[in-house]
Amino acid sequence: MPLFSPCKISSFLSLIFAIILNIANITPPSTYAANILAVFPSVWKSHYLYGRAILQELVQTQQHNVTLISAFRTNVIREVTQNTTELPQDSRLTEIQINGLEQNWLEMGLSTQVDSMNEKSIMERFTRLVYAGASAADLVLASKEVKNLLMSNVTFDLFIVDIFLSDALLGLSQFYKVPIVVVSPTGPNTWINEMTGNSQNSALDPSNFLPYLEQMSLYERIINTLMAVFEKLTYNFFHMISHQAVYEKHFEALAVERNEVLPHHRDLTHNISLVLLNSHPVVQYPRSFLPNVIEVGGIHLRDEKLPEHLLQFIEDSEDGVIYVSFGADIKISEFSEQKLDILFHVLETLKESMRVLLKWEDTLEKHDLRTKNIFTSEWFPQQAVLAHPKVKLFISSAGLMSVIETIHYKTPILAIPILPEQQVNAKRLENRGCGISLPYEDLNYDSLLDAIDNALSNKSLSTNIAAVGKLLNENIQDPMSKALYYIDMVLKTSGANHLKSNSNNYGFFKTELVDVLLIILAGLCVIIAVPFLVICAILRRSDYTRSETLSSMVRQRRGTSSEVNSPRKDSVPRSSSCEK
Fold this sequence. Notes:
By secondary structure, the protein is an alpha/beta fold. The protein has two domains: about 240 residues, Rossmann fold, CATH 3.40.50; about 170 residues, Glycogen Phosphorylase B (Rossmann fold), CATH 3.40.50.2000. Helix content is about 50%, strand content about 10%. The protein is built from 21 helices and 13 strands. Helix 5 packs parallel to helix 9 and helix 14 crosses helix 17. It is globular.
């Protein structure tokens, strides 16, 4: 056999190619261009940006065609009209914007203003979220744009959705007969665990609606357990019923036109092929996941460049830069006047050699800034800003995506959390020595100024966050490559059914072993009851026999005493015989 046979050469070249791909962390393009429908109905722009990062990669590196439906848009919309036979060829990413979703959010009693977010109790906020999710799904499916899409001849091969409280949208996967990929920008939650059959332990997994870390006290575990029961009951007996109604409203007639029987909505929620979670053990905490539930925290990280004028402003600073931003969803300009006065007063107090980048969504006419070291803008390339070595501190609300970015770029953070999940993120960062936490309610001039001074002077923050950032970035495969690999697997295998757990077919009573516990309880009752009844019967029989014996003895005694005391029949009184 020759030393260099064609077979050996082919195997050698394949091995070299695989090694190069592994070293370069490059995901090879998909074998074919698929048509993908994506829906991100959330009013939180961070969800849209997170999902769009994945979709852009599917378009650019995998050569897929993507139609994105959301409350936002980046490029020019190309409307899909009736009788369209294929997607537009001049762009692989078509965006369809649905208007009115934010107004629906407000009509449901929810708010995007900082001071109004936490006025309601956890239970009320939770209930309003459920209402808002069902009405938002109804609004999306009732829109002219989606109806035109359903009436057209466009076909799809995959459905990608941000399904947070939007279960009725799964009807689109049933309509197009395609597998479902769920993207969760907020990480794991109770609803995703319910759909996939993933395990959730109330003693280990705190609710997303509670500001608890995974190390919970007895009191916190009691509250968390009650909250978990409330979430499951609400999901099964309230949330699912409302989405079933929305689902039937929009897809029942379409099924009749096709001479099909519309499956139950719950069957669709248990048929999810893949879940991509924005989570990481370093950022949150380690937990168990099923094979089709994949952690891809940091998938949105990318190389960005600073505009020239912004780069010049940063590099001209002598003592560094403080970057102030509360994310894509929270507007600093909507803070209360009292909080804004505190913030601007503190920023003005900083020495002139320290510069500030302030994400500001309004004009500064109402606020007379007496310093030129503050650069304001409605938008900053946040990742490029955090990556610059002269940025010494990031003042943020500690949203999940911002936390991942500040750890990745090793920039210490001063967290001013507002929502419960942000409070948890802030606590974790503080516990790891990566930042300082200052509750929004405690924000005043002295507390904010002291927190900034402590964060800038504490050198251990930079050391600790660098160590944590190293753990975050040490992956066998980068998150985007992992996500693309699993999405490609779903496409190739028509749903990746081999990764699905059978547990998601169980109902509440089977999953929680209610039926088993009832049978065991019944068995214990039988085991205890049978001997008890036998003993009771024996004792009762014994008591009956004893009472009969006693009764007999009493009757005999009474009979004897009556014979002794009663006169004889043949006896005659003496007086009578004498008289005779």
